[in-house]
Amino acid sequence: MRTPSGSADLPALALLATIRAMETPTETRTYRPKGDGSLYQKADGRWYYSIMHKGKRRSKSLGTRDEEEATRNYQKVRNNLMGAIDRGEFEPTTKENVRLAEIVADYINELKTHRRKSASIAESVLLKALKAPEFKDRKVATLITADFKRYRDRLTKAGTSHATVNYHFTCIRAALNMETKQTPSRIGKVPFIPMGPAGKAREGFLEYNDHETLLGCLPRSLKALFVIALHSGCRLGELLAMRWQDVDWANRIVRLPDSKNGRKRNLPFWGGIEDHLKRQKAYRDEHHSECEHLFFWMDEDVRVGHGGARTQPGAHIREFRTSWTNAVKKAHGLSESIPAGLLFHDLRRSGIRVMVQEAGIPESQAMLISGHVTRSMLERYNIVSLKNVQDAGAKLDAWIKSKRQVAASPRPRTGSKSRHPTRTLATALATTQISPPFEVGLFALILLFCYGAERGT
Questions:
Q1: Angle at CA of residue 306, ends 301 and 307, nearest 5°
Q2: How far apart are CA 420 and CA 247, in angstroms?
């Protein structure tokens, strides 16, 4: 059939297309509530039940071509499938003979291959865990959550902190997860590993006004190390690895060719960094010109026992825990604001706070100096820009003052006309004594007048 304009009759074409679609054998799917799966009919007329499990569709035939019968019987098939899922029949299986020690060895080799800074620490932790009765000579297929709970309870009763045990579990889980990514994998499913309560973030900070007090209590060999650590927020390992060839006196920076995250950094001279480096270099050129490292033990400190009995003058500083602890105790006696248990690593957080809150440089620039990749450290230790907080407070204060001024100011009048003529006239009527019949008629006229005035007629 053609329309007067010569175009095809669209309703007729739509009806024809619908008839042809009905003639073509396709699947008919009946969706059920979320989590209950769905029923569908294949081209041959048979009905099936299917459900999604971890991104894969699990289907099973209902053994009938009748829709009513399929609807009645699907519940039994669904229960069978859900039972198989609960029993783990669809999960990949773990090889029976693979042992935890094999998985750990592969993980350590992977860390060493990629030259991870944490390879040595992870290796010592994992080898220690493998000697524990809960994991010694254990097969991965036999590991259960109760094994990890017993390991945690035994160590915490012996005085080990939950944070240390959590790190052990993190290394074990990383080794197991790495194996699951292999093709093919020897592990089907990683057992659930319960983590203990996370400890509070350390609150050990050194105020910048107190750093001179602590500086005066340190031995001469550690003064330059302390000043650079506080003014840069660098890690101790990065500081002790510095060499004189990394100092760029012309550009007033110290270059870090290697760091924990593998990124090169430059530390600018500021505060007392340049002055202490010059003193350090003058002493080195005079007494130990062969020393390549920036920080070394000086003769006067070695004579009084700093660095250990076997330490020689000019030796590279590697361990100074006793000297640091004694200096902190002495400084705490002079100023109680210096924490008695201040760690050298606390200087890293203190330096970041000085740069961001007190000096006011942007967080991104402070992170470039200290070597932090994400803001997680700033959020964990509540180190935010003090200027940003003060600016936010000033804006909030200005807003509330403007709201109070608007509320206190009188409302402007718009001439002799009232914005609410109906309300005004109603008040006048209420105060005027008029007879009831006349009052009703007059009130109706006034309402009509006010309505017309508000409508602009």
A1: 120
A2: 80
pLDDT (tens digit per residue) in 270-326: 999 999 999 999 999 999 999 999 999 999 999 988 888 788 999 999 999 999 999
- Those residues whose C-beta lies under 8 Å from the C-beta of residue 304, and which sit 6 or more positions away, are 219
Q: Are 320 and 311 in contact (CB under 8 A)?
A: no
The token pair that represents 306 in the structure block: 């700093």
3-class secondary structure for 64-120?
A: CCCHHHHHHHHHHHHHHHHHHHHCCCCCCCCCCCCEHHHHHHHHHHHHHHCCCCCHH
- Quote the tokens at residue 259: 């760091």
* Residue pair 227/276 in contact by the 8 Å Cβ criterion: yes
> What are phi and psi for residue 52, nearest 5 degrees?
-90, 135
Residue 443 has pLDDT above 70, yes or no: no
Strand partners, 248: 253
The side-by-side arrangement of strands in the sheet containing 38-41 is 28-31, 38-41, 47-53, 56-61
Nearest to 136 by CA among 147, 146, 145: 147
**In this predicted model, what pLDDT tens digit does every residue of 137-172 receive, in sequence order?**
999 989 999 999 999 999 999 999 999 999 999 999
Distance between CA 350 and CA 210 in Å, rounded? Answer: 11
For the record, the structure tokens of 411 come out as 């409302």
CA-closest candidate to residue 233, choices 342, 344, 343, 348: 348
